[in-house]
Batch of 2 targets.
Target 1
Amino acid sequence: MRYLRDLARRPMRTTLTILGITIGIWALVVFGSMASKIDSLVKGGSTYYADKLTVTDASGSMGGFASAPLSLSVRDQVLKVDGVTAVLPAVMLLMDSGSSAVTMGVPPMITGSILGSDQGHETFQTRAAEGRKLTPADDGTMVTVLGSDIARKDGLHVGDTVEMRGHQFEVVGVLEPTLTAPDQAASVPFQAAQLLLHESLPPVVRAQVAPDDLITTMTVYPAAGVDPELLADRIDAAVPNVATMTGKDFDQQIGSATSILNAILVGIALISLIVGGLSVVNTMAMSIAERTREIGIKRAIGGGRGRIVRELVTEAALIGFVGGAVGLLLGAVVVLVANEAGRTSGTVLFELTVGTAVSAMVFSTVLGAIAGFVPALHAARLDPVTALRYE
Amino acid sequence: MALLEGRNLRKTYRLGRHNLVEALRGVDVTIEPGEMVAIIGPSGSGKSTLMHIVGLLHAPDKGDPAPELRFDGRDMTGLDEGERTRIRAHEMGFVFQDFNLVPTLTAMENVMLACDYAGVRGEAARAAARDALELVGLGDRAGHRPSELSGGEQQRVALARALVNKPRLVLADEPTGNLDSERSADVLATLRRFNQEHGQTFVLVTHDPEVAEACDRVIRVRDGRIREAPAAAAGPVATPAAADPAAPAATGVPVASAPTPGASPEPDHGGAGAPS
């Protein structure tokens, strides 16, 4: 294209200008992907918790995760509360006893629950990519079904044996990716989870409780038409030493924090993009000024103003486009590498959506065009004779 | 019908807050088709301004008496900038002093630029451009950039560009200004050839008397007004001192002789080019 020849007049200058856009777009892609990932995790969680309650020990939960032990007998008390149709007791604990529960991503977890106790109310379903899911027949055995990230990280397949918290488990299934928390979890039969939880308790506590009485959370399903908020209050009133989290609580805890984070991330990216855009304005202004005589010739021999503006704006848009393409490419590389590296510790931080990619390209091209517009207009408006005489 | 007729052409430029320059103070000019006319004058005489108005690059100042400008019989004074640009694109050709080719385009592409502005694209444009370059003798250099061409060759490319759309009028501003005498002679010869073989109308602005010599007619401009001397069919350009009292047009020199039939009382008032 002819436009490339004009850009090639001053290769260094063009390169630096393109670099300005590239950096801005790169930031937009990387940070935007981070924000996307956070959004989908949050949305996944929000949807998941919208129609159910999570009952835990009174110390409360962070985003639905709690590790303080609760007695299984509490289930019966909860079941008696008016408006409760089903209760699913579960045990959740960190797979790696050393890591903290508060990370940027979702840490790897071991979960076990009394299968079937939701009585069909649970709407979120996972699917097996390999092998099968757990059934009540697995009770008492040491088998496990792995989430997609766990399996991939260690290259585990059905038939392999995996050691978790000092015990050997046979892999009987691997789940399809969900892009949310289950990818980072290994589910085991309820008793096995209880056993592991028991072993993780401090010796003093361990001596006083039996493994088969232990749970960490209960998922409570409201009856049709029952307001979850009201039900939560009733449960907290009726059952001592528990805390009940609703979907709204989840949204509040997580939602506000993430939207601030999102705003900061995208804000940083936009600022760098604006700087990149100004760099295009500057470059186009210089480049156009240097071509004043040439523009004068074109106008004199019959090139209309609109035509000249279109040519120059196209050139500027091309700078934006190339800068955007390179920025997108580099951003995608960073996202890919960071995600792969982060899978081992459960910090899969980025989700590069098609939407982000397309927006990045459109944004950079339009930014280039806009940046070139004012210098172009100014040049086209010059009197051709004056332009011709410009030294 | 005259190709171009202008009356009462005035132009004043503002160069800064307190600096007004009266470049043209009331000029009448007529160009006939097939003519090769030189507009000659010293620096600052207004000759370039006259060319700019004739070439529709600038519009003449309004005022009293009202300016008239007719190109091919059509009134040009009421046109806006866009319309004038369109006419320049389709019906005029320009050659400037400093070659004025786009450096990033090849000779062929430079010529095709003029086609593009006149709405001719693709294969038709390529063919026309090739022909134009052949005509100026640069058919084999079509793929070269200006930096690869000599000064004279660049000027010829500019000429090809000016001619490619077969314009009614070609205007050249100091076409030999930056060339040595040999190249100048080449360019002038080419212009003459086009004028004689193809009937192409040329208006050349110059301060070089040799260029004037090559033309059919000379319009002399000084201080924003016209004094004009028709070039004799054979022989040197008549100088003011040797003005023939029987010549139809006024010479504008205050010679102490009886006013000639066509002369106006004020020697400084420009007369029409052709006796009318």
Target 2
Amino acid sequence: MIGMKLDALKESKPHEYLIRFVFGGVCTAAAGVIAKKFGPGVGGLFLAFPAIFPATASLIETHEEKRKEYAGMNGTQRGRKAAAVDAAGAALGAIGLIAFAVVIWRMLEGRSAVFVIAGATLAWAVTAVGAWATRRALVHRVCWRKRKSEATADRSVLGGH
Amino acid sequence: MTETLVRFAIGGVVVSLFAVMGDLFRPKSFAGLFGAAPSIALATLGLAVVHSGKVYAAAEARSMILGAAAFCVYATIVTWVGMRWKVGALKTTLALMPVWFAVSFGAWGLLRAAS
């Protein structure tokens, strides 16, 4: 189930917000400079640059580590796994990013830029959430089949005795 | 210089907003979607339309498709490495960054050679 956890905002320290602001600002400014120097062909590539991805993955790992260590567990492995799961979500978000770019590329000319950019953002959200829901359904199906085949194997072993 | 500063400020705000949304949502795999939000693109494309016109912005968006595909490949490999090897998240994400450059510039070069 998708949910919101407002307490999660308290976990991030002010300097962590600052790091993400600076990373995002630098990458956006750099994308503009690159586009000016090398043209929209190269500049466009950087509109999908994984700008704050390393910083976010590192923060998720640290927060998960602290949470598990607070609960008396070894958090290192859990922290790494949490960062990997976040990366899996980002891969699906990137599929939405392709949809966003296609909408802008094909629809911008001759239409209101505000509406097209808003529509492209909606296309990102719908595609990313759709890809996430599809993957989740597939994973559940695979797990359900695995459990079912294990249960069948157990029954046949018990039946044999 | 002023334009770069404006880009920095807008980019910082938009990227931070999506990062906060990623912090708020659960489960982790869903929150991860916000790690690939169109934050830099939103901060850039509006300015590109105003300063350079719609044709220029559309050309940027066309290249962005390749950058986004490279992001998908990069994030998938980061997931795979993170699940299998005992390497820290920062090290993994930074060490694999050349994957994004290779895939995006490789695809762009191929497209350019073909057209």
